[in-house]
From TrEMBL:
CDD domains: SDR_c (cd05233). It comes from the Bacteria. PANTHER family: EG:BACR7A4.14 PROTEIN-RELATED, ZGC:101858. This is NAD(P)-dependent dehydrogenase (Short-subunit alcohol dehydrogenase family). It comes from Roseimicrobium gellanilyticum.
Length: 269
């Protein structure tokens, strides 16, 4: 068995499903112990059973609840004795544009996607400082601009990107803690499949994605994102901090799709 994360303790938010679940599975495969977090208790319990109760522990709670960050950190320390890394993966993904977005919705999006990661980093910092640990924020390629109907989501991920760069510098200098970010492109998660079904697409829609959106003929798998995560959590990434890396199969900025490109529902993490 590989051991790139041997004996590390990793907290992964939003890890009952999708990308977060794949990250937790890969971390354990690489020798880590993990704190699973999410809102789906049954799915979380199934994942803990799969990974083993000696390798995983579950916490079900809305990240915006008062004190949730502190409770997650305490669970990691009380269960496994330390905390080496935090993966801020949990996110609210919901389509809306300037016309359908009100302030309450926008605030909720920022609370979940930007302020909750900040809160967790702050709560975890005393533990991460002890081990010169790492933070990896999971953003989105939509952070660079985003589609019109992903307006608040895109803004929240753009703010997360600035948070990563700012703290990646500050915390490395002051605490020896690295903060980096990956921006996944279009990933075939359970939630993404469900959203596309709700948009009226057939169950096998992902086999017919136009090549302008997926040059490889398919979109990304959660396991492929998880594979990239390991590098940023492992000691092999050394002192690298404050970096944002896009994980997509085409250049996202400056790309010029053909004018006759087929339009399909907007991709989102």
């Amino acid at each position: 068995m590989s051991s790139r994360l041997q004996d590390k303790v990793v907290l992964v938010t939003g890890s009952c499903t999708g990308i977060g679940k794949a990250i937790a599975q890969r971390c354990v495969a690489e020798g880590a112990r993990v704190v699973i977090h999410g809102l789906e208790k049954d799915l979380g319990e199934a994942l803990v059973a799969e990974l083993g109760k000696d390798r995983a522990v579950l916490h079900i709670e809305d990240l915006t609840a008062e004190g949730s960050s502190e409770r997650l950190v305490q669970l990691a320390v009380s269960t496994f004795g330390k905390l080496d890394a935090v993966v801020n993966n949990a996110a609210m993904v919901s389509a809306s544009n300037i016309h359908t977005t009100d302030l309450a919705f926008f605030r909720r999006m920022l609370e979940v996607n930007t302020l909750a990661p900040f809160s967790l980093i702050k709560a975890a910092l005393p533990e991460l400082r002890k081990v010169r640990g790492a933070v990896l924020n999971i953003g989105s390629v939509n952070a660079w601009s985003g589609e019109p109907n992903l307006f608040p989501y895109s803004v929240s991920k753009g703010a997360l990107m600035t948070l990563t760069r700012n703290l990646g510098d500050t915390l490395m200098r002051e605490d020896g803690v690295r903060v980096n970010q990956i921006n996944p492109g279009w990933v075939l998660t359970e939630n993404e499949a469900q959203r596309k079904r709700e948009h009226g697409l057939a169950d096998d829609w992902y086999t017919q994605v136009p090549k302008v959106y997926a040059p490889a003929g398919r979109i990304l798998w959660p396991a492929e994102i998880a594979a990239a995560v390991v590098y940023w959590l492992a000691d092999e990434s050394g002192p690298i901090s404050g970096q944002v890396v896009d994980l997509e199969q085409h250049p996202f900025i400056g790309r010029n799709p053909p004018k006759d490109a087929t339009t399909i529902p907007t991709p989102a993490k």
